[in-house]
Amino acid sequence: MGEEKSSIAMASRERDRELLIPVAGDSAVDSDAKASASSAAAASGREAFYKVVRSWASKKFMTGCFILFPIAITFYITWWFIHFVDGFFSPIYAQLGIDIFGLGFITSLTFIFLVGVFMSSWLGASILNLGEWFIKRMPFVRHIYNASKQISAAISPDQNTQAFKEVAILRHPRIGEYAFGFITSTVVLQSYSGDEELCCVYVPTNHLYIGDIFLINSKDVIRPNLSVREGIEIVVSGGMSMPQVLSTLDPHGIQVDRTRSNRS
C-alpha cells in the first residue's frame, strides 16, 4: 500500500510539472511580445514626434525665407543704385580730396532735379530739340535713343506726352480669357460700311518691352479703375500686385473726358 501511494504521489507531481512548464513558457512569450510592442510603440512615437518637429521647422524656415527674400532684394537693389548714382560725381570729389560717402549721390539727385527744371523752360526745350536733331542723324544711335525715349515716355508724369494712355483689358485669345494691356492711341478705320473707332492696345508678352499690338473696337475694350503706373506695376510683378477686385470705369465719363481733352 505504501508503495502504491508513493507511486501515485510521484505521478501527480510529474503531471503538475508537465502542467507548470508550458504555463511558464507562455508567460515568458507574452512578456517578450509586450516588451517588443511597447518598444515599437515608443519608436513610432519618437518617429512621429521627429516628423512633426521637422515639418514645423521647415515651414518656419520657408516662411522666414519668403519674408526676408523681398527685403534682401530691395536692400540689394537700393544699395546698388546708390553706388551707381554716387559713382557719377564721387570721382570728382576724390580728385578734390573729399571722401564722403553719399555726397556724389546727393549731387547726382540735385543735378537731375536741375536738369528737369531747366528742360521745362523754353531755352531747355530748344536745346533738347537741337540735341535730338543731331542724334536722329546718327545711323545706329538714333534707334537706341528712340526706343529708350518711348520707354521713358510710357511712365512720364506729363499726361500730354504719355505713351500709355489708359489700362485696358481685352477678351483674348479665347472666350472667357482676358489679356492685360495699355491703350496707346486711337485710330479711325474708314470703310464702305462707315467709320469705326479703333483703340491701339499694346499687350506686353515679356515684362514691358516686348509685346503685341491689337486694334480693337473701342466698345469692346474694358477699362478698369487702374492708373497707368498701377498697370505697369502689375505687368512688371507678373500679376502679383493685381488687386483682388477690379471695377470698370463709366464709359460715358470716359467719352466726356476725351471730348474735353480734344477741345483743349
Note down, in words, how this protein is organized.
The structure is a single chain. This protein has 264 residues and is an alpha+beta fold. It has helices at residues 2-95, 103-119, 122-135, 141-154, 228-236, 251-263; strands at 166-171, 178-191, 194-206, 210-217. A four-stranded antiparallel sheet has the order 1-2-3-4, with helices on one face. A hairpin with a 2-residue loop joins strand 2 and strand 3 (194-206). Helix 1 crosses helix 2. The chain is flat. Mean pLDDT is 76; it is low at 19-26 and 252-264.
Give descriptors for this structure.
single chain; alpha+beta; four-stranded antiparallel β-sheet; 6 helices; 61% helix; flat
Number of contiguous helices = 6
Give the terminus-to-terminus CA distance. Answer: 143 Å
What's the arrangement of strands in the largest beta sheet? 1-2-3-4
Query: Structural class of the helix and strand makeup?
Result: alpha+beta
Provide the β-strand percentage band. Answer: 15-25%
Report the biggest beta sheet as strand number plus sense, adding barrel if it closes: 4 strands, antiparallel
The overall pLDDT, averaged over residues, is: 76
What is the C-alpha radius of gyration, as a whole number of Å?
Answer: 41 Å
Low-confidence segments, given as residue ranges, are 19-26, 252-264
- How many β-strands, per DSSP? 4
User: Can you write the helix and strand succession as a string?
Assistant: HHHHEEEEHH
Residue share in helix? 55-70%
